From TrEMBL:
<feature type="domain" description="Pyridoxamine kinase/Phosphomethylpyrimidine kinase">
    <location>
        <begin position="14"/>
        <end position="257"/>
    </location>
</feature>
<dbReference type="GO" id="GO:0008902">
    <property type="term" value="F:hydroxymethylpyrimidine kinase activity"/>
</dbReference>
<keyword id="KW-0808">Transferase</keyword>
<protein>
    <recommendedName>
        <fullName>Hydroxymethylpyrimidine/phosphomethylpyrimidine kinase</fullName>
        <ecNumber>2.7.1.49</ecNumber>
        <ecNumber>2.7.4.7</ecNumber>
    </recommendedName>
</protein>
<dbReference type="Pfam" id="PF08543">
    <property type="entry name" value="Phos_pyr_kin"/>
</dbReference>
<dbReference type="InterPro" id="IPR029056">
    <property type="entry name" value="Ribokinase-like"/>
</dbReference>
<keyword id="KW-0784">Thiamine biosynthesis</keyword>
<dbReference type="InterPro" id="IPR013749">
    <property type="entry name" value="PM/HMP-P_kinase-1"/>
</dbReference>
<comment type="pathway">
    <text>Cofactor biosynthesis; thiamine diphosphate biosynthesis; 4-amino-2-methyl-5-diphosphomethylpyrimidine from 5-amino-1-(5-phospho-D-ribosyl)imidazole: step 3/3.</text>
</comment>
<feature type="region of interest" description="Disordered">
    <location>
        <begin position="256"/>
        <end position="275"/>
    </location>
</feature>
<dbReference type="GO" id="GO:0008972">
    <property type="term" value="F:phosphomethylpyrimidine kinase activity"/>
</dbReference>
<keyword id="KW-0418">Kinase</keyword>
<dbReference type="InterPro" id="IPR004399">
    <property type="entry name" value="HMP/HMP-P_kinase_dom"/>
</dbReference>
<comment type="similarity">
    <text>Belongs to the ThiD family.</text>
</comment>
<comment type="pathway">
    <text>Cofactor biosynthesis; thiamine diphosphate biosynthesis; 4-amino-2-methyl-5-diphosphomethylpyrimidine from 5-amino-1-(5-phospho-D-ribosyl)imidazole: step 2/3.</text>
</comment>
Length: 275
């Protein structure tokens, strides 16, 4: 019997299921990868915003990581919300020297504007975790913090992606264009050069958890042995449909539709296309 690919997410929670660990596990499942999760912070949030954050003790995060790695070696790992320097150092110590694919979604601030990473940790992620990553997936504000310059165009995003690889030491970087205007263009830079992933911009407020889902799908594809460019292409196609076929769940900025990719041509299965 061939072994199913497995992926581990190390991240914070969203009890309403649209972002964080919950979105990651749904994405792994949709891509037919066995999903595992280690919780860093329990977040009381919904589609309106964040009401409270409870960081787990670092020793308990370590115990969870030990439980996973003692038993099931994941084919790929992704980190999302890693709020404190101590948590970053722990994750770095566990992943250092491992050949497992490692995707960092450097979650800093939720779409609602609520902080998910301590201010003091924002630069530290550059030195502790970024050099260990196969791929870093910042949005524009996160990339600006990592590279220390302003990003207001796809050209700036190109420069940022290259800087994250050549100066900060990541294997690859994709700077997402969700926060820019015009078509939604994501720029990947890896050892083979630049790759562009473009889609129409859907006019919707229901984009809670887009970054989590995008990076989780990429992680799942890497776990299955896909190339970096193919994995990002699948992530982009998946998130485009997940945004396009809105679910109408939640009273605020709703979650994306993890079944969206199944709905192409079948718009009555539970998602409404945003026109
Ligand atoms: N309105 C939109 N229409 C189409 N694609 C979009 C839209 N907004 C974002 N995207 C795409 O969604 C993915 C995630 O990008 P985004 O910049 O929103 O990430 P993010 O800010 O980290 O997300 P989040 O913080 O909500 O998890 C990218 O592939 C981006 O191009
Ligand atoms: C635990 C956790 N991780 C990541 C996000 C980012 O998602 P968004 O920016 O869409 O709120 C979030 N809200 N919560």
């Amino acid at each position: 019997m061939s072994k199913v690919a497995s992926a581990l997410t190390i991240a914070g929670t969203d009890p309403t299921g649209g972002a964080g660990i919950q979105a990651d596990l749904k994405s792994f499942q949709e891509r037919e990868v066995y999903g595992m999760s280690v919780v860093t912070s329990v977040v009381a949030q919904n589609t309106f915003g964040v009401n409270g954050v409870h960081h787990l003790p670092v020793s308990f995060i370590e115990q969870q990581l030990h439980a996973v790695f003692q038993d099931i070696e994941p084919d790929a790992v992704k980190t999302g919300m890693i709020a404190t320097i101590e948590m970053m150092e722990l994750v770095a110590s566990v992943l250092k020297g491992k050949s497992t694919h490692y995707v960092i979604d450097p979650v800093m601030v939720a779409k609602s504007g609520d902080p998910l990473m301590e201010e003091s940790s924002r630069k530290v992620i550059r030195d502790t975790l970024v050099p260990l990553a196969s791929l870093v997936t910042p949005n524009v504000p996160e990339a600006e913090i990592l590279v220390d310059f302003e990003i207001s165009s796809t050209d700036d995003a190109k420069k940022a992606a290259r800087t994250i690889v050549e100066e900060l030491g990541a294997g690859a970087a994709v700077v997402k264009g969700g926060h820019l205007t015009g078509e939604a263009v994501d720029v990947l830079y890896d050892k083979s050069g630049y790759h562009y992933f473009k889609s129409e911009r859907t006019n919707t407020k229901h984009t809670h958890g887009t970054g989590c889902t995008f990076s989780a799908v990429i992680t799942a594809e890497l776990a299955k042995g896909k190339s970096m460019a193919d994995a990002v292409a699948t992530g982009k196609a998946f998130i485009t449909d997940a945004i396009k076929y809105t679910l109408g769940v939640g009273k605020g900025n709703g979650p994306t539709n993890h079944w969206g990719h199944r709905l192409q041509g079948l718009p009555n299965l539970g998602g409404e296309k945003v026109e």
